[in-house]
Design goal:
With about 240 residues, the chain is an alpha+beta fold. About 45% of the residues lie in helices and about 20% in strands.
Length: about 240
């Protein structure tokens, strides 16, 4: 009966084959448990087959669109994750291996919750189980929003101002540093930024917080300059501080 219920979650047979090839039994069971609670009714396609996680388009039991992020356990890059976990006072007793992936998923859920409460545009998190995270599906014209590297920004000045506002709120209200902000982790929704991929975000008390904050600014100032909005690192840093 359980196997039959799992089959119903996957809208397309080739999607089920993809999942079975990539994910282990624990992951499949986590998806099933979230389905039993109404968070996932169907998985309908893949938004992003990333190096560390797959993101699926899904629907919950009420028919609402959802994004389901599933972290890979078989090919996870544990060393990369460790430097964002250790030093974060919220996660001092983290185990290694697969348990680290589960903790990373919990970390992203907590980070998204803090960012959302601070008024920052991020996918609202709904639930997680082991390495599976259920979030709001960010859409535009009934399609998943594209990243800014895929969909050009029309009004660079307004987009920049909103981004600066969010980065200031991130530090001063959510007390977090994203630690991986770039054109790969920002969606363009109606020419306004939505920040994604927040698993690596660390507290402002983290020993490497300042270095990571400056790296985020460097990445974005360089990208926006290439797009036609000339903003140096110093200018962007100053603009964020002015919003404090």
């Amino acid at each position: 009966m359980q196997e039959e219920n799992i089959r119903k979650i996957f809208k397309e047979e080739n999607l089920k084959k993809t999942v079975n090839l990539v994910f282990d039994n624990e992951t499949i069971m986590a998806i099933h448990d979230l389905s039993e609670k109404g968070y996932i009714e169907t998985l309908e396609g893949i938004i992003s087959p990333g190096k560390e996680a797959f993101v699926f388009i899904a629907k919950d039991s009420s028919g609402h669109g959802r994004a389901v992020k599933v972290y890979k356990t078989k090919t996870a890059r544990f060393k990369k994750m460790e430097k964002y976990i250790y030093g974060d006072l919220r996660f001092e007793k983290v185990k290694k291996g697969t348990e680290l992936i589960y903790e990373w998923t919990r970390k992203e859920f907590k980070n998204l919750t803090r960012l959302s409460k601070a008024g920052i545009a991020v996918p609202k998190p709904f639930a997680f189980k082991k390495n599976v995270l259920v979030m709001e599906l960010i859409e535009e014209n009934n399609e998943p929003c594209k990243k800014i590297r895929e969909k050009p920004i029309k009004d660079l000045k307004n987009f920049y101002n909103k981004l600066v506002e969010y980065m200031s709120k991130m530090v001063n209200e959510a007390h977090l540093i994203h630690a991986d902000l770039s054109e790969y982790n920002i969606l363009n929704k109606n020419d306004s930024p939505v920040i994604i991929d927040c698993g690596q975000a660390v507290l402002t008390s983290h020993p490497n917080a300042q270095e990571l904050f400056e790296r985020d600014i460097k990445n974005l100032s360089e990208y926006l300059t290439k797009q036609g909005l000339k903003k140096s690192f110093d200018e962007m840093y100053s603009d964020i501080k002015k919003k404090s």
